[in-house]
Design goal:
The protein has 352 residues and is α/β, with parallel strands linked by helices. It contains twelve helices and 18 strands. The chain has two domains: 5-151 and 315-346, Alpha-Beta Complex (Quinone Oxidoreductase, Chain A, domain 1); 158-291, NAD(P)-binding Rossmann-like Domain (Rossmann fold, 3-Layer(aba) Sandwich), CATH 3.40.50.720. The protein has helices spanning 44-51, 54-59, 102-105, 146-149, 152-163, 179-190, 203-212, 225-232, 248-257, 278-283, 299-309, 328-336; strands spanning 5-11, 19-24, 32-41, 64-65, 69-77, 89-92, 95-96, 116-117, 129-133, 137-139, 171-175, 195-199, 216-218, 238-243, 258-266, 288-291, 319-324, 342-346. The chain is globular, with a radius of gyration of 20 Å.
Length: 352
C-alpha cells in the first residue's frame, strides 16, 4: 500500500450511504497524535448517520469520515506531544472537548458546551488512520486485545452511568440490553449488586444479558413494576434503575419500579419528549433522577480499563459479529438489525 494514502469510509454528500475512498494520510497538528486504527466498533449513531435519518440530516455536514469507537497504535505525534508515545496502544475518547468552557474548567469535561465528536463533527475511525488530540488517545495495557480495546468508549457510557450510583448490595433494574445495557449489567455484577434485572425486547439480547451477569431478563410485555420488583427480590422496589433503551415506556417503568428515595439514571435518548408523572412519581417519592452523557474525563476511562484489564468484566461475549473494512455496510446493517451484540470492523489489527 502507498504509505501516503489510506482507506476511509466517506459520507460525501447529505444522503444515505457512504463510500470506501482513498484519502491522503492525515498529519497530526500541534498537540495531536495519528493513530493506526486496529479495530472500530459500530454504534447506533453510526447507523443513524449511515441511514441519514432526520437527526443526522440536521446534525452532520458532509464530507466526513464515519465511525468513532476505536483502538489502535500511535504512529506519529504533532508538535508538543511526547515522541515516546509513538508505538503506544490506545483506545480513543470520541468527544473532543474545548478545555475552556465552565464545565471543562470545573472538572466536568464530559459535559463540554463546545464538544466536537469524531464521525459527526470531524473525521472519524472507519479508516486506516485517525488524527485526534493527544489527550483523547487513552493508553491501553498490552493484555487487553484490540476487540475489547475498541469497545472501551461505548463500555465507558455503561461504566459512567452505573458507577455514578452506589451498587454494592443494591437491587438494580436495567431497561434496554443493547451494548450499553449489557455492559452495565456486567458492571453491576462486578460491583457486587444484590440482584440485576434486565428488561429487553430482543430474545437474543435477553440471553446475552444473562451471560453478562444479569439474574433475570424479562420481555417488556411481561415486565410491569410488580414483576420487576419480584424478579429483584425486593417488594418495596429496586434501589437503582438505569434507563438504557431510549424508550419512554422503559423510562416510566424505571420510575414505577424504583423504591421511594431510590435513584434513576437515564442514558437512553428518547426520540420524543416522554411524559412522566413528576409530582407523584418523582417529587413526592424523593426519587433522584440523573441524566448521563458520555464518559467522565478521565475517571471513567481509568475505571473501564481496570474493569477489563483486571478481569472484573469480560466484554468478549459482547462481540457477536466481525467484518473487514471493505464490508462496513454489512457491519452497519447487522448493527441496525437490533439483535447483535457489538459489531466490530477489523481494520489493521491482527493479533492481539
Ligand atoms: P441500542 O439501541 O442498541 O439498545 C437499546 C435496546 O433497548 C435495544 O436492544 C431494544 O430492543 C431495547 N428496547 C427498546 N424498547 C424497549 C423497552 N420498552 N423496554 C426495554 N428494552 C427496550 O442502544 P445502545 O447503543 O445500547 O444505547 C442505549 C441508549 O443510550 C440509546 O438510546 C442511545 O441513543 C443512548 N446513548 C446515549 C449516550 C449518552 O451519552 N447519553 C451515549 C450512547 C448511547
Ligand atoms: Zn468545554
Amino acid at each position: 500500500m502507498d504509505e501516503r494514502a489510506m482507506r476511509a469510509v466517506r459520507k460525501e454528500r447529505p444522503e444515505p450511504g457512504a463510500v470506501l475512498s482513498r484519502l491522503p494520510v492525515p498529519e497530526p497538528g500541534p498537540g495531536e497524535v495519528r493513530v493506526r486504527v486496529a479495530a472500530a466498533s459500530v454504534c447506533g449513531t453510526d447507523v443513524s448517520v449511515w441511514h441519514w435519518n432526520e437527526w443526522a440530516a440536521r446534525r452532520v455536514r458532509p464530507p466526513l469520515t464515519l465511525g468513532h469507537e476505536c483502538a489502535g497504535t500511535v504512529e506519529a505525534v504533532g508538535a508538543g506531544v511526547d515522541p515516546r508515545r509513538v508505538g503506544e496502544r490506545v483506545a480513543v475518547e470520541t468527544h473532543v472537548v474545548c478545555g475552556r468552557c465552565l464545565a471543562c474548567r470545573t472538572g466536568d469535561g464530559h459535559a463540554c458546551a463546545n464538544v466536537r465528536i469524531l464521525g459527526l463533527d470531524r473525521d472519524g475511525a472507519f479508516a486506516d488512520r485517525l488524527v485526534v488530540p493527544a489527550t483523547n488517545a487513552w493508553p491501553v495495557p498490552d493484555g487487553v486485545p484490540w476487540h475489547v480495546a475498541a469497545l472501551l468508549e461505548s463500555f465507558g457510557n455503561a461504566v459512567h452511568t452505573a458507577l455514578a450510583q452506589p451498587l454494592t448490595a443494591r437491587t438494580v433494574l436495567i431497561t434496554g440490553a443493547g451494548p450499553t445495557g449489557l455492559g452495565a449489567a456486567a458492571v453491576a455484577r462486578a460491583a457486587g449488586a444484590a440482584s440485576v434485572v434486565v428488561v429487553e425486547s430482543s430474545p437474543e439480547r435477553r440471553a446475552l444479558a444473562l451471560r453478562m451477569g444479569a439474574d433475570a431478563a424479562l420481555a417488556p410485555d411481561e415486565a410491569d413494576a410488580g414483576a420487576v420488583r419480584a424478579a429483584a427480590g425486593e417488594a418495596s422496589g429496586v434501589d437503582v434503575a438505569l434507563e438504557m433503551s431510549g424508550s419512554p415506556d422503559a423510562l416510566r417503568l424505571c420510575l414505577a419500579a424504583v423504591r421511594s428515595a431510590g435513584r434513576v439514571a437515564v442514558l437512553g435518548l428518547a426520540p420524543t419528549a416522554a411524559a412522566v408523572d413528576w409530582a407523584e412519581g418523582v417529587v413526592m417519592r424523593g426519587v433522584a433522577v440523573q441524566g448521563v452523557t458520555g464518559r467522565r474525563l478521565w475517571q471513567t476511562w481509568l475505571d473501564a480499563t481496570r474493569l477489563v484489564a483486571r478481569g472484573l468484566v469480560d466484554l468478549s461475549p459482547l462481540v457477536t459479529h466481525r467484518f473487514p473494512l471493505e464490508e462496513v455496510e454489512r457491519a452497519i446493517e447487522t448493527a441496525a438489525g437490533g439483535h447483535a451484540g457489538k459489531v466490530l470492523v477489523e481494520i489493521g489489527g491482527g493479533s492481539p
